[in-house]
Here is the input.
Amino acid sequence: MQHTIRHLTAILFVLIACSCAGRPTKSGTELYQAAIKKYDKKKYYDAKQLFQEAVPLLKRKVEIIDTQFYIAKCLFYDKEYRKSAYCLSDFCKNYPNIPQTEEALYLQGYALYLDSPAVQLDNTQTEEAITVLKRYKQQYPTGMYQAEVGQYIRTLQAQLAEKAFRNAKQYHHLGHYQAAVISLHNFQQTYLDTAYDAEAAYLKFESQAKLADAASEADLAAQWHKALTYYYELVEQYPNSQYIPMAQKTHAHILTKVNYTGE
Here is the structure.
């Protein structure tokens, strides 16, 4: 009985060994070529799996560079933008002077752009995207993606401007007028030619006027001088703004209160 069991066990091992030996092991190049076919058919997940399987087999071979790039692009087209941006960042660092680097840097910035959070969320990722896109513009001044990159930067900067303006405006609505004046001034210095410029100038004047209206006798002149300065800035820079009539009423109110009869 024991002899029979040993005999059957030996046969089983032989069958397993033959089965394993009968399976051809693909080389790195074969895996790479199979992955390319999947990629060309837009089967990015399957392609990525094959590329990743090929990586350890392609070390010190020319295909390794394209393999790493394809992995990052598969992640990008599968909308795994954060992972793709991370891989593309490494690719640009490891291969800074090859033809593929321009596209890699562009895709890194584009991935961060597409993954940029909503206006009300943290700015860190938006700022990171702008930094990478600006790096592309600087490194490739005649690059083929210049137009797209410029548009992405403008869009992201508009998002940052909107958030900065919302925050400053909120200070005004909450009655934190000193904070509003400071935030609105910083907004004007940081963001130029936005859709919020006229309203920012108006709110800065209104906030300063509120400070002047509540100022002590000793501080009234200084506070009013600031408000007057902001009023004339508004009128000079945005003479046709919808906010001018409201600003004129506030201006007239404070002139009357402080018995100010000059310009």
Q: What stands out?
A: The chain has a mean pLDDT of 87.
